[in-house]
Amino acid sequence: ILGAQEVFAPCVDAAQRIQRYSGVPVLPRYHQDMPAHGSRPPRLGPGQRPYRIVLLGAMAPHKGQHQLTALAAHARKSGAPLQFHVIGYVQGEAVPDAAFTCSGLYQEDQLDDLIKACDADGFLFLSQAPETYSYTLTHALQDGRPIAANRLGAYTERLSGIPNALMLAHDAPAEAVVSTLVAWMDGLYGKERA
After folding, report:
1. What's the predicted TM-score (pTM) here?
2. Lower CB count within 10 Å: N or C terminus of the chain?
3. Distance (Å, rounded) from C-alpha 94 to C-alpha 78?
């Protein structure tokens, strides 16, 4: 990037990170299809306990694979009313006794239909590395249902001002995240806490 007339990044967070390491001014330039707010008005899912929490894409370690495993195991062990489903797959070896389900590989043009068929109560993004954009987040925003995401990278910026969005600490223990997700879902769906 040294010697470039202009340097762009897809979000403010990425621009700041690149500038900090390079010393070169970097400007955010957003993707054309980035909705400022969801393409649809906010809406809710069925709202029946256990709540169906959907994650999108390949679950690799940097995308939150280990956090998902810990959250799902804690929810199962504690009886929390959460069911986790990945529209996509878990990278690497199969997770023994996984407390979540996966749909498997998909083509991007199938994702919106898979989301519709899943009828989620909310989406969850657990990336452990700062995202620079997140195409799967675009699909969730277009769906309009509640979204929870780790407070890293483009998630923070893209979910700012989005109704029914919840930001999570990327390093919070599973017990705290499960409790927060249940309280969030109960609040959205008007359920009494058991």
Report:
1. 0.89
2. C
3. 23
